[in-house]
Specification:
alpha+beta; endonuclease; 5 helices; hydrolase; six-stranded mixed sheet; tt1808, chain A; 189 residues; nuclease
């Protein structure tokens, strides 16, 4: 998260941001401009959306990508890279969601620290959230934080496994499919 652009209420932010061509996030009155992703980032998101869309066909759940917002109480409006909601309350014109069960962030060097710490802390305030995934296209690391029955978040490192498992939606994606279309070798190979 960079330097705030301006100070607004959440209602002012939603009205202001609705007509902007660029994406901005909101945290406790501060507005932050979003930066664009790179090829690997976009490729992983496209692969995820294809597989999640197929998995969720004929279910009440839907997957959305980086142009849809998630609102956390009156404190934050964020753009997850990918999220799934089973909330039946949304309409066809809705762009702000409040009840995702799964959020996935595709990491970049400039956002990795924020996605792992502050952003995850904000998302954990969502009562609906069951899983938070982190995917690093550069190193091919795949991690999932899963909410346990005891209310604690458990880290599952799937970086060396053949599949990326998302229990909240009963989905498994082969790692090869997750990184399909990324011809170069991962960093550190």
């Amino acid at each position: 998260m960079g330097v705030p652009l301006r100070k607004l209420t959440i209602a002012e932010f939603l009205a202001w941001e609705r007509d902007r061509p660029e994406r901005n996030e909101f945290w406790r009155g501060d507005v932050y401009a979003m930066v664009g992703g790179k090829r690997g980032h976009g490729r992983v998101i496209a692969n995820l959306m294809r597989h999640l869309g197929n998995q969720l066909d004929d279910t009440p759940c839907q997957a959305f990508s980086e142009n849809m917002k998630v609102q956390v109480a009156d404190e934050a409006v964020l753009y997850p890279d990918v999220f799934v909601t089973c909330d039946k309350q949304f309409g066809p014109d809705q762009a702000v969601f409040t009840a995702p069960i799964l959020i996935i962030e595709v990491l970049s060097p400039s956002t990795q620290e924020y996605d792992r710490s502050r952003k995850f802390a904000i998302y954990r305030r969502l009562p609906s959230l069951r899983e938070y995934g982190l995917i690093d296209p550069d190193t091919r690391r795949v991690e999932v934080f899963r909410l346990g029955d005891d209310g604690l978040w458990n880290l599952l490192d799937m970086s060396e496994q053949g599949e990326f498992e998302l229990a909240s939606i009963d989905c498994r994606i082969a790692r090869a499919d997750l990184f399909k279309g990324m011809e170069s070798e991962p960093a550190g190979s």
